[in-house]
Structures are given as C-alpha cells and as structure tokens.
C-alpha cells in the first residue's frame, strides 16, 4: 500500500490556530483536541481507579481487617471496576480513535464534531456524578460492577446517581460509536477502500457496532433496576414473579461484548505496532479483519459462561462451553499472524514494540486461563475465586492497558512533535511488565487454592501470596508515575520528531508533520 | 450535513440511531423472551411450578418410593414465621399427597405474603406437579394471624430413575407493597 501526501506542510501555512487558554478546551470540536481530552481524562481515571486498587491491595496484605471496613471495601472494588472499565480503558480507546482514525483514513475531522464534543462532556459529568456517590449517605455503590440484584437494591442514596451516571456514559459511548462509524463510512479519502484501511481503524469500526448493539441493552437493564427500586415493577424481584437470574442474562448479554469492546481496539493497535517495528506489512491482513469480525459475532452467543453456577441444563452448559472455546480460533489466528509478521522481520525494540510483545505473551496467558474457565466442571471450582480475578486482569491490564500504552508510545511523538525519553520509557516498561506479573500471577494460585473474590478478609494460609501480590501492586502503581512524568516531559519539549517518527512508518498518519497540525487533510490525500 | 464525498451523514446517523433504539428495545424484549424460552425448552419451570396441573389419572407406582423434603425461607428479613409442618414424606410416584406449611404474621399490621416455589434437583422439577397450592395466589394475613396452608402434589411416574429425593422449597415474600402498589 503506497501512499503519498501532497501537501504535508505547505498547504497549512494559512491555518488559523485554536483559541487560547481554557476556552479552547471547553469549546473545541477539533478531533485532535477532543482526542487529547479523552486521553488525559482516561489517564486521570486510571490513576484514581489505581488508588482504589492500592487501597484494596493494602487491605489484603494481611488477613484480618486493617484499613477499611467491609462495607467500604465493597465500595472500593465496585468503584475501582466501574472507573477502570468505563472511565479509563474505554475513554482511552475513544481518545485514540478520535486522534488517529481521521489521520489514518485521510479525513479532515470526525464526521460529527459537535456530537463529539457533547459525548466527551457527557462522559466527564457522568464520572463526576459517579465519584460524588462516595460522599452521599450510604456511600458509593457496593454490589460489584455487575450490579446484581437483589444486592444492588440495598444501595443507599447513591443508587439513582450511579444509574444516571451509567445512562450518561452509555449515551456518550453510543454517540462516540456513531461518530466513528459515520466518519469511517463517509469520510475515507478517495482510494482508501475498506480493505486498505489500517487495522486500528478496522478494529474501531467493529467495536463501534458492538457498542451500538450492547450499550443500550445495559441501559435497559439498569433502567429495569431503577423501576424495580422506585416503581415496584418486578423484573428481578422474585416476590412479584420476577427472577434475579434474568438480570444476569441481560447484564452479560451486554457484559461479554463489553469485554471485546475493550480488547478489539487493543488488537488493532498491536497490529500496527508489530508491523512497524518488524518493518514488514502485517501478515494476513484480510484474515485479521475477518478474525476481528468473527470475535465480535461470537461475543454475542457466549454470555452465559459468566453464570454457569446459576443452574442451567446440560445442553446450555455444553453450548456455552463450546461457543466460548470457539473464540480461541479467531484469536489464535490473530496471535499467529502477529508472530508471522515478526518472522524474518528486522525487529527493533522501541518502547511501543516492547509493550506489544509483552501484550502477546501476557494476553495469551489470560486467554488460556479463559479457556480453563470455559470448561463447566472446572468453572464450578473457579467461579468467584481469585482465579477469575487473575484471568480478567491478565486480559485487561497486560492486554488492553499494555496495548493502550503501546499506542501512546507509538503515536506520542506525532501528537506532541517531540521524541520522548527512551531510557525512561524502557524503565517504565520493564518495571510495569515485571510488577504486573508479581501483582496478578499469584492470584491464580490463590484462586486455585480456594480464596474467594470480593472479600476483605481471608484464611491465613493465603497470606504469603497476597503479600507478594500487594508488593507487585505497589510497584506497578509507582511505575505508572514514571509514565505520567514521561508524558508531561514529552509534551513540554524534547528532540524534534520527524513526520515519519519511526524507521518504517506506514500509513497516512506518518505523512503529516509532527506535531500533527491543527487541521490535516483539508484536501483529501491521494492514494496510489 | 454532507461529507466531502457527497454522502449523506444524516441518513447514516438516522439508521444508527434506529439500531440503538432497536438494541434498547431488545434489552426489554429479553424479559418475555426469557420466560418463553424457559417454557418452550422446559428448562426453568418457574411458570409451571406456580400453576395448577391437571390431576393425573394414573395408577401409583407401588414399587417405588421417593422422599420429598420440605424447606422454607423468609427472604429480605420479612416479618414472618414460616415453616413446613412435616420436614419430609415418603411418597409413591403417581399418587396424590397433601402437605402443609404454617405461617404467622409477626408484623403489627395486616399484610400479604406470596410464596415462590422451587424444586431441586433442577431436572426433577418438571415431574413435580401441584393440583392445589397456597403459592398460586397471594395470602392475606390479619395482624398476628397464624394459619396452615395446603399444597396437594403428585410426583410424576415418569420421574427419571436415579432420583430418589426431591426438595420442595418455598420462599415467602412480603408483597404488601407490590400488591397494593402504594409503596
């Protein structure tokens, strides 16, 4: 795929700059500014959610109750999850989409810039509302991020606030998704056919459809909770003929595609990074697209593997086990293609590549523990144990979060126009990659030995591995301060980045200067 | 709103919003679908357990006995005393039996209770038929009232071999709120 850009710097001499100061950030409809705001917001939420996680790990350092009471512990773990899922990982990928999708497809901006601005501020206020629940009588929601009834119906004054916050963030995600789809469908540069589109944009196109398909279902399920709470409907209330298990079905019908909403953009990022630093086009480009699409499709028919223990007939257990295992096939195709891309490539180990490689190894570990959990008789043992906690943290942290970090290290010079401190980035990588394993690997052992999740206290035989895990958590948390420092440093200055930044830049985003001018591709680039 | 390519953004946005509305509606459609799915496949038997079955006119199976255990629970800290009168019975499949549960209203007001049945093991529940049960309708209790309530049941002769013990469980909910609808 050969691409050329006719007006790299020349055509932008007459561009007007953004307004100065705070007004710029409040009123901007520029996709780059909004992308930056999403990314900064996500980083802030990552740190807040991380502080909650460290409080959880501090409490679990030793058996017994040391720092927090059990009620507040439950609030911490619920808020940690809601913030990390909806406040950190999803907005980070939305921010990356805002920045990079128009640049990758040769569009001047997102298709619906004002809706873009609206969806960012909805998200912002959703999280202010959610965080405010910590200060109301009864405290924050404490039923876990899955919000299962009847437990969640015991939430205090925070209940309607949390539901409304979820409605707002859902609306925000749906608008973001509509924006991405319209941008990709209508605004691609001439010659940028769908099957020439970079894989990050592809992964986001499919993610956007997933969002539209399932976020409204989540909105519906929390609306049912709301009417059960205030209007005596009985969707989930057994006394009135409802069934709490129904909630689990509706929730996980959303919840399973939701986990792919968090991982598919990561797949796109890793595809871009692995190709660039292997100096080879991605192996099996089309199979990558089909693999993402198959994973997205399968995500709709596996939800009940989250709830095997509610009691379901053998046929159901078999179906959900086999459908779940089937996902390993397209995922295996992706892992194979990434590996094949590196095969005989001339690989170099810049920070984005380091994170992408760690992603390959560690995400695969999370994938394998997922296969173990898919097996019904084994799942009955692992259900609600720390093994599950280890599994989903492996796919989310060294999975999604590492890919997001790879993306930041990959595109940061394009955003800021400066190269970052490579030595610092490598310190950040090694500390993060080592401590993430110290943090989460022992949780496999704890879970297999029988430690339950979501409990602030535990039997004394679990102490040693919990101590190791907490030490890993503190190390992981501190290492992220390096990341923040590095980003601030890079935003302020550093060696000038070239348009291509890397040795083997590939794609339209590398044809515009660094930093990317405020307006790019006002005249569509020509593709050959 | 026109994109540079001359394609209409408005039409696409409208279609995507329609998809969004469709997904929202689908979330609610899952509620009746769930019940229909359970009925059709005969897996959850929630509906069947709360309805009267026609009495089966078949000879009891004198060569087989099955133990039926009775349990009771009062969820949500309800102000009830609620318990089976006998803890278990030995029954012959195909024969009609009677069991009683006793309940006393401990709240200092009149109230309404609704029993929700379940039978374990799950695969036995479709062979457990009730011709009459206090769980079919809400039960009104005056302040301090205590009374026994009746369930008539038949264990189907088709009960798979290997099941020799069933548990019938009732959760007794306070439904004054739901029934009156006045919160």
Major sheet description of chain B: 5 strands, mixed
Number of domains of chain B: 2
Shape type of chain A: globular
What is the largest interface, and how many residues per chain? A-B, 44 and 41 residues
Strand content of chain A: under 5%
CATH topology of the largest domain in chain B: Ctag/Cox11 (Pfam 04442)
Strand residue percentage of chain B: 35-45%
In total, the number of strands of chain B is 9
* H/E element sequence of chain B: HHEEEEEEEEEH
CATH superfamily caption of the largest domain in chain B: Ctag/Cox11
| CATH structural architecture of the largest domain in chain B | Sandwich
Low-confidence stretches of chain B: none
Q: Biggest β-sheet of chain A, characterized?
A: none
Number of H- or I-type helical stretches of chain B: 3
Structural class call of chain B reads: alpha+beta
Radius of gyration of chain B: 24 Å
Termini distance of chain A?
8 Å
Give helix % range of chain A.
Answer: 55-70%
Task: Considering the chains and any ligands shown, give keywords for the structure.
heterodimer; A: mainly alpha; 15 helices; 0% strand; B: alpha+beta; Ctag/Cox11 (Pfam 04442); 2 domains; 4-stranded antiparallel sheet; 9 strands
What are the SSEs and their pairings?
The complex is a heterodimer of chains A (528) and B (183).
Chain A: H1 22-27, H2 31-59, H3 70-105, H4 113-132, H5 158-187, H6 199-230, H7 244-278, H8 285-298, H9 314-326, H10 328-342, H11 351-374, H12 376-382, H13 386-416, H14 422-448, H15 463-492
Chain B: H1 9-41, H2 46-49, E1 66-73, E2 80-84, E3 88-91, E4 96-105, E5 111-120, E6 128-133, E7 139-141, E8 146-155, E9 165-174, H3 176-180
Parallel strand pairs in B: 1-9
Antiparallel strand pairs in B: 1-3, 2-4, 4-8, 5-7, 5-9, 6-8
């Amino acid at each position: 795929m050969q691409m050329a850009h006719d007006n790299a710097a020349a055509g932008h001499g007459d561009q007007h700059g953004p307004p100065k100061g705070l007004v710029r950030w409040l009123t901007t409809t520029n996709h780059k500014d909004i992308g930056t705001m999403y990314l900064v917001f996500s980083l802030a939420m990552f740190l807040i959610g991380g502080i909650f996680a460290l409080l959880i790990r501090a409490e679990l350092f030793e058996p017994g109750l040391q720092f927090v009471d059990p009620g507040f512990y439950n609030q911490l773990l619920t808020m940690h999850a809601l913030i990390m899922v909806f406040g950190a990982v999803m907005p980070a990928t939305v921010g990356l989409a805002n920045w990079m999708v128009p640049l990758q497809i040769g569009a001047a901006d997102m298709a619906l810039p004002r809706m873009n601005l609206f969806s960012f501020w909805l998200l912002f206020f959703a999280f202010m509302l959610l965080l405010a629940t910590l200060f109301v009588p009864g405290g924050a929601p404490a039923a876990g991020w899955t919000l299962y009834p009847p437990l969640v119906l015991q939430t205090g004054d925070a209940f309607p606030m949390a539901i409304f916050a979820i409605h707002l963030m859902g609306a925000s995600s749906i608008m973001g998704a509509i924006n991405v789809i319209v941008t990709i469908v209508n605004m691609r540069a001439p010659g940028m056919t769908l099957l020439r589109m970079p894989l990050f944009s592809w992964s986001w196109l499919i993610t956007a459809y997933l969002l539209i398909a399932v976020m409204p279902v989540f909105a519906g399920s929390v609306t049912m909770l709301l009417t059960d709470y205030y209007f005596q409907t009985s969707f989930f209330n057994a006394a009135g003929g409802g069934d709490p298990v129904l909630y689990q079905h509706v929730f996980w019908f959303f919840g399973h595609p939701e986990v792919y909403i968090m991982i598919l953009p990561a797949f796109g990022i890793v595809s871009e990074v692995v190709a660039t630093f292997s100096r080879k086009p991605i192996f099996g480009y089309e199979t990558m697209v089909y693999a993402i699409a198959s994973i997205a499709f399968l995500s709709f028919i596996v939800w009940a593997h989250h709830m095997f223990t509610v009691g379901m007939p053998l046929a159901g257990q078999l179906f959900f086990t086999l459908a779940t295992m089937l996902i390993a096939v397209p995922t295996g195709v992706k892992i194979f293609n990434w590996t094949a891309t590196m095969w005989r490539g001339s690989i170099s180990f810049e920070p984005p590549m380091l994170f992408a490689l760690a992603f390959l190894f560690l995400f695969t570990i999370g994938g394998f523990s997922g296969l173990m959990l898919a097996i019904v008789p084994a799942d009955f043992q692992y259900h609600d144990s720390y093994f599950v906690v280890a599994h989903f943290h492996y796919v989310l942290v060294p999975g999604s979060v590492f890919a997001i970090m790879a993306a930041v290290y990959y595109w940061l010079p394009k955003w800021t126009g400066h190269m970052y401190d490579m030595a610092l980035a490598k310190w950040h990588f090694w500390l993060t990659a080592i401590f993430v394993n110290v943090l989460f690997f022992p949780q496999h052992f704890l879970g297999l030995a029988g430690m339950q999740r979501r409990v602030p206290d535990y039997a004394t035989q679990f102490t040693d591995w919990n101590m190791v895990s907490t030490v890993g958590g503190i190390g992981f948390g501190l290492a992220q301060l390096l990341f923040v420092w590095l980003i601030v440093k890079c935003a302020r200055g550093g060696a000038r980045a070239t348009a291509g930044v890397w040795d083997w830049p590939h794609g339209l985003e590398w044809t515009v200067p660094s930093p990317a001018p405020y307006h790019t591709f006002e005249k569509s680039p020509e593709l050959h | 709103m026109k994109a540079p390519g001359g394609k209409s953004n408005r039409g696409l946005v409208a279609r995507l919003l329609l998809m969004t509305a469709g997904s929202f509606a689908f979330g609610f459609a899952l509620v009746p679908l769930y019940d229909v799915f359970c009925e059709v496949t005969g897996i959850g038997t929630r509906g069947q357990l709360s309805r009267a079955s026609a009495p089966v006119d078949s000879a009891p199976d004198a060569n087989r006995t099955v133990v039926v255990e009775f349990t009771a629970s009062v969820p949500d800290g309800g102000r009830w005393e609620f318990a089976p009168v006998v803890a278990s019975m030995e029954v012959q499949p195909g024969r009609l039996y009677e069991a009683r549960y006793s309940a006393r209203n401990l709240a200092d007001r009149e109230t309404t209770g609704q029993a929700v049945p379940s039978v374990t093991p799950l695969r036995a529940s479709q062979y457990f038929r009730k011709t009459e049960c206090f769980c079919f309708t809400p039960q009104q209790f005056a302040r301090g009232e205590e009374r026994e309530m009746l369930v008539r049941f038949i264990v189907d002769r088709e009960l798979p071999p290997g099941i020799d013990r069933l548990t019938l469980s009732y959760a007794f909910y306070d439904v004054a709120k739901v029934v009156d609808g006045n919160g």
